[in-house]
Write a structure and sequence with these properties.
The complex is a heterodimer of chains A (269) and B (359). Chain A is an alpha+beta fold and 269 residues long. Chain A has eight helices and ten strands. By secondary structure, chain B is of the alpha/beta class. In chain B, the strands form three sheets. In chain B, strands 3-2-1-4-5 form a five-stranded mixed beta sheet, sandwiched between helices. A five-stranded mixed beta sheet of chain B has the order 8-7-6-11-12, sandwiched between helices. In chain B, helix 4 packs parallel to helix 6 and helix 7 packs parallel to helix 8. Chain B is globular. Classes of the chains: A alpha+beta (269), B alpha/beta (359). At the A-B interface, helix 1, helix 6 and helix 8 of A face strand 7, strand 8, strand 9, helix 7 and helix 8 of B. The structure holds adenosine-5'-diphosphate and magnesium ion. Chain A: Belongs to the protein kinase superfamily. BUD32 family. Chain A: It is an enzyme of class 2 (transferase). Chain A: Keywords: Activator, ATP-binding, Chromosome, Cytoplasm, Hydrolase, Kinase, Nucleotide-binding, Nucleus, Phosphoprotein, Serine/threonine-protein kinase, Telomere, Transcription, Transcription regulation, Transferase, tRNA processing. Chain A: One of its GO terms (cellular component) is nucleus.
Chain lengths: 269, 359
């Protein structure tokens, strides 16, 4: 995620209270995310997701997209939250003004955790095969990712932008963390925590195998391009997806077709 | 093979013909071959096969065009470069992706030159050609690349020796969408259908017609938009009215089509930039000449504290120099295509190429 390089004026809602300055956490793909004290509960924070007008977009198109996306993102989050899928709760929203206020999730994106685990090792596959390193903590994380996606799909939601940036790792309490000292424990801690799915800006309600398969395909490609060195472990996500979600076999069958199409359309000049 | 590390000046001839442009160019690399070398375009000649309005270019006619113009264009490229045959280190040609018949006709011609002049051959991925030429011309060192042409729509970023595809069109390419819509409106294909849509769009804009907006993650699709635009065109011809109750024009249609599909392209590019943490964006491929697209991309990049890099039609539109340049980069790392493997392939993914010349 890019560190914000420019000072942006915060949305109006965040200028109403003068006691706390909102902190701009990221300028993500199309929204800004602020950390701000919760107006509802003392000593707690919440996340404010703001979709500013896009200067490059035609104003009519821009207004249409912003409103539709905030509304639908909040709606999908509500639904997931109700059904027990690990997502942030929605606290308030104003779709036309382009913002919603959601529960603050502690921790780092999964991408950061995986990259910390992978460290600076060379890509050389041969070298990887000879290392006798215990990969269980990383594999366990991938399994939790598969379970989270399975839970999502079970509620009738497809995410539309599954990446390792759009999943957070909410830290476990100390008693659940791997104990011990040294590099090995530190690495295991980097991939510990509950997977919380965020960023439902492109999500939609769908129960079709095809849509679910495309969801997995997006994740598969994003994973491979973001973590090429862990690509060979991707199947653990699919394995646990299969185990945790009853309708998975049909989806994974469709995934083969989707991949096929992906390779076939591999381009004319 | 001669030792290139000792050679201060290296020259390649590049031959491109994967679609309706036949391009031949000559590039010069100077200096230490593996690190700081400079590139100079010695010549870059192109001849385009233009089909009549309302029609697209067919493979066999395009291949015939390339065959009949190859010798003429090659001679022009050599004389414009002002070099002799002995100066050339290698012959580069487009291995793919592209249309089979035109690719083959140019590959045969390149093979012939290789045998005739006794020069090694280098097969080049067309998309990598676009990327490397874009980087060389603009100086963008580590950009997210939007590659948009008649056959391709991809968002690409370099990581660990490959150009990795982060997003792409799930059905037809953006240029194909524009070209086909130009056919619907029977707009001229000269010099290019997309260029004429761009000019027409400048006269539109009174209304924004409602078209589907289809983005999924870093992917997008265009066929639904084309269908709807075609329907609106039919509606217009029958005297139908726009959202404001007034008639609308082909210019309004072109304007709305551009605003919608370019917004989608900028959005998926921005998502990839956020994902890889880059603030540079490089636009390559024929659609990349479109100034409205460049302007929109520039506004997005500026907001992210970065900038957009684009080239003009000499390098954006398919050309021979990009094949020469990318081929020479590979050749300098020791890569060659033996004559018995000098085939071409309609499908050749950008991420299949091992990019040995980058760290
Ligand atoms: N509820 C939250 N709590 C804490 N951090 C969050 C929360 N939601 C998002 N983030 C952080 O902000 C980043 C961008 O948010 P996201 O919803 O993914 O927006 P975008 O659509 O811009 O990608 C995430 O990658 C994550 O690091
Ligand atoms: Mg996100």
């Amino acid at each position: 995620m890019t560190e914000p390089t420019t000072e942006f004026p915060p949305p109006k809602i965040l200028t109403l209270s003068s006691t706390h300055k909102p902190i701009l956490i990221t300028q993500g793909a199309e929204g800004r995310l602020y950390k701000t004290p919760s107006p509802f509960q003392p000593n707690q924070f919440c996340a404010l997701k703001y979709r500013p007008p896009k200067p490059y977009r035609h104003p009519i198109l821009d207004a249409r997209l912003t409103k539709a996306r905030i509304s639908s993102e909040a709606k999908v989050l509500d639904r997931c939250y109700r059904e027990g899928v690990p997502v942030p709760a929605v606290l308030a929203k104003d779709a036309a003004a382009g913002w919603m206020m959601i529960e603050w999730i502690e921790g780092e994106p999964v991408r950061v955790g995986i990259n910390t685990w992978l460290g600076e090792r060379p890509e050389d596959d041969a070298a990887l095969d000879t290392t006798q390193e215990d990969e269980t903590p990383l594999i366990d994380l991938m399994k939790r990712m598969g379970v989270a996606v399975g839970a999502l799909h079970r509620t009738g939601v497809v995410h539309g932008d599954l990446t390792t940036s759009n999943m957070m790792l909410r830290p476990w309490a100390d008693d659940r963390l791997p104990n011990g000292h040294g590099d090995k424990t530190e690495k295991a801690k980097a991939v510990a925590g509950d997977v919380v799915v965020i960023d439902f800006g492109l999500a939609m309600q769908s129960q079709s195998d095809e849509d679910r398969a495309v969801d997995l395909y997006v994740l598969e490609r994003a994973f491979a391009s973001t973590h090429p060195r862990a690509e060979r472990l991707f199947h653990h996500i699919l394995d646990s997806y299969r185990e945790s979600f009853k309708k998975a076999p049909g989806v994974l069958h469709k995934l083969e077709d989707v991949r096929m199409r992906g390779r076939k359309r591999s381009m004319l000049g | 093979m001669l030792d290139l590390t000792k050679k201060k000046r290296r020259i390649a001839l590049g031959c491109e013909g994967s679609a309706n442009k036949l391009g031949i160019g000559v590039i010069l690399h100077e200096g230490d071959s593996l690190s700081s070398s400079t590139s100079t375009v010695l010549s870059n000649i192109r001849h385009t096969f233009v089909s009549p309005p309302g029609t697209g270019f067919l493979p066999k006619d395009t291949a015939r065009h390339h065959r009949s113009f190859f010798v003429r264009i090659a001679l022009q490229a050599l004389s414009a470069a002002n070099i002799s045959i002995s100066d050339i280190d290698c012959i580069c040609y487009t291995k793919g992706p592209g249309m089979g018949a035109p690719l083959t006709s140019v590959a045969i011609a390149a093979r012939t030159l290789s045998l005739l002049w006794n020069k090694p051959l280098v097969g080049v991925n067309h998309c990598v050609g676009h990327i490397e030429m874009g980087r060389a011309i603009t100086g963008a060192s580590h950009p997210v690349v939007l590659y948009v042409s008649g056959g391709n729509t991809q968002v690409i970023a370099y990581a660990e020796q490959r150009y990795r595809i982060f997003g792409e069109a799930l059905d037809i390419a953006v240029g194909n969408c524009l070209d086909r819509f130009a056919r619907t409106l029977e707009i001229s294909n000269d010099p290019a259908p997309g260029y004429n849509i761009e000019q027409l769009a400048k006269q539109g804009g009174r209304v924004l017609l409602d078209l589907p907006y289809a983005v999924k993650g870093m992917d997008c699709s265009f066929s639904g938009i084309l269908t709807r635009a075609d329907e609106l065109a039919a509606h217009m011809k029958n005297g139908g009215k726009g959202p404001d109750g007034e008639p609308f024009t082909p210019a309004d249609l072109c304007f709305s089509l551009q605003e919608t599909i370019f917004a989608m392209l900028v959005e998926i590019t921005e998502r990839a930039m956020a994902h890889v943490g880059s603030s540079q964006v490089l636009i390559v491929g024929g659609v990349g000449c479109n100034e409205r697209l460049q302007e929109m991309m520039g506004a997005m990049a500026a907001e992210r504290g970065g900038s957009v890099y684009a080239t003009d039609e000499r390098f954006c539109i398919d050309n021979g120099i990009m094949i020469a340049h990318a081929g020479l980069l590979a050749y300098e790392t020791g890569f060659q295509t033996p004559i018995e493997e000098s085939t071409c392939t309609q499908r050749f993914r950008t991420d299949e190429v091992l990019v040995k010349w980058r760290k």
